[in-house]
Amino acid sequence: MPRTTRLSSSLLRAAAAAGVAALTLTACGSGSGSGSGSSSAGSGDVKVGLITKTDTNPFFVKMKEGAEKAAKAEGVQLMTAAGKFDGDNAGQVTAVENMVASGVKGILITPSDSKAIVPAIEKARAKGVLVIALDTPTEPQSAVDALFATDNLKAGELIGEYAKAAMKGKTAKIAALDLAPGVSVGVQRHNGFLKGFGATDKDVACAQDTGGDQSKGQTAMENCLQKEPGINVVYTINEPAALGAYTALKAKGREKDVLIVSVDGGCTGTQAVKDGKIAATSQQYPLKMAAEGVKAVVTYAKDGKKASGYTDTGVTLITDKAQDGVTSKDTGYGLENCWG
Amino acid sequence: MTATSTPPSTSSPYAGLKAPTTARRLLMAPTTGPLVALLLACAFFSFSTEQFLTGGNFSLIVQQVMVVGTLAIGQTLIILTAGIDLSCGAVMAFGSIVIARMAAEGSLPPLVAIALGIGVCGGFGLLNGLLVQKIPLPPFIVTLGMLNVAFALTHIYSEEQTVTNLPGPLTALGQTFPLGHTDITYGSLVTIVLFLLLAYALSSTGWGRHVYALGNSPEAARLNGIRTSRLTIGVYTAAGLLYGIAALLLISRTGVGDPQAGQTDNLDSITAVVLGGTSLFGGRGSVLGTFIGVLIVGVFRNGLQLMGVASIYQTLITGVLVILAVTVDQISRKKAR
Known about the structure:
Structural class of chain B: mainly alpha
Strand order of the largest sheet of chain A: 2-1-3-4-5-11
Order of helices and strands of chain B: HHHHHHHHEEHHHHHHH
Number of domains of chain A: 2
Number of helices of chain A: 11
Shape of chain B: globular
Radius of gyration of chain A: 24 Å
Distance between the termini of chain A: 63 Å
Number of strands of chain A: 12
Strand content of chain A: 15-25%
Domain Periplasmic binding protein (chain A): 48-306
CATH architecture of chain B: Orthogonal Bundle
Pfam families (chain A): Peripla_BP_4
Number of helices of chain B: 15
Helix content of chain A: 40-55%
Oligomer: heterodimer
Keywords (chain A): Signal
Shape of chain A: elongated
Order of helices and strands of chain A: HEHEHEHEEHEHEHEHEHEHEEH
Strand order of the largest sheet of chain B: 1-2
GO molecular function (chain A): carbohydrate binding
Structural class of chain A: alpha/beta
Mean pLDDT of chain B: 88
Number of strands of chain B: 2
Largest sheet of chain A: 6 strands, parallel
CATH superfamily of the largest domain in chain A: Response regulator
Largest sheet of chain B: 2 strands, antiparallel
CATH topology of chain B: ABC transporter involved in vitamin B12 uptake, BtuC
Largest interface: A-B, 65 and 73 residues
Family (chain A): Belongs to the bacterial solute-binding protein 2 family.
Strand content of chain B: under 5%
């Protein structure tokens, strides 16, 4: 019976291995008394953690770049981590734990799930780690020490006001290409747009989720045009969704007579504003969020002063077709300050 | 899962050691490679970071892998029968939302809600098993479909909302107790006990032998009087129940019911199984190997993080390790022939 013997011997070895592992585990347990929360009292080398929603989204890539620059300038060590996908709460929890274990002084985090991340943040703060939310607030907002973010409601309002002015009294048929249900950033921008436009959800002819993705934005717009061919204003959660909408409109020959507005201010998106594909966008500043976050941790490490409350990192309306009564800057400024 | 008339266990655990080719077999054993990889990784991280080699950190790693680890036990059972389960993460997510909502909003007693959630997951497993066995459909397709069904049900039932304010008993397994200078979570213990339990069931019961036999050759197993149909359905159901336990562990770990959870856990569990030396072609491998596989992933993620290496490198290394593991499996299969 060659099979059974092979099987049992390998099992035996595995069992022995497990025993060895258990031994090392317990040996380590008794060996070091430091535990996980090794808070170094001396300022020595300060560690700052940055946890983004994903590794791949250009917005977060830029945020990381901003943090790296700031960390270099301040002479501190930056650790980074990210979820595997937008919404990966478990991945972010793990990253928080590992960073606390490695003795960071502060953690900057863009929560994937505003509510679900809260218990992990509370544990980190209980160990004396300063936690600052970047870009996206936690729920409740008081779960973190401070929030450095764009005012997303205002970002939406700006393009809402712009769209209202640009329509010049024409009856609007609105399509809303949203982010995803229940994600605060998307909800705030959407509501801000409606507020700025002076409309309500009843006035939206077609609302679709895009996940902020270009191809899904295109599909959503195609379906919206199918449902309501008369759409003439398109609100989009971000510029990839806006470019997807543009592609769909162009296929129907409608790209000239439909007004697309967006939020984000990425370089590709800002260029699209310059090229006339998107009418206007609200630009936000991830680099600034990250840089100020790193500085706040350094301040905390130096004199124990914790940042608190909400810091608005600013938003600017970017368009080359300025409207009366709506403050904006042109794409020249936009491209100089864009991210991505 | 009836332990039908089984031949008495003829091979004592020491039978392998008496064989002349013990050294060679040791090298060839499916779990040897993974174990060496794990120990090397531990050694490497111990030297490169001062925080790695602490009891607190090891406890943390086990705590971080307990959810995927529990899923991976079920995944191992299914892969041993030459099947695969793509639905495990989604089924777990659904189970966790059922438990969380039933207890937090449906005001069911927590223990009833937990039983219900685990039962629902077991139901999904049963359904998978029936479809695989009775129609029959390829496991890949059945569980791919079930992945979407469970994912959608999770989002419909949760109304896309994260469930907070869970009653205490739901998060009890996430609590810690001190052991020396280290804090261990109860959930970690549950996972370890489940691993040992299933390892025993696979190595020392008739049921376990039948699972291996089924994976090696379903036809031969059937001709030898094994009731392969019941066995297959039983394996999928058992896996489903394990996903239910994973759902409870997930809730206890994060403290919330999260409809977005588990989206990559199906692939993560398969990764752990493969890294642990279990063959994707069935009939070869072990649950303890899977435990080592789970730890390898956990150790790399933790260690690289402590070193300050960006998380994308963890993905890179995991990918390379998976390919290496399958290569080793293939080569050792050829030699075994």
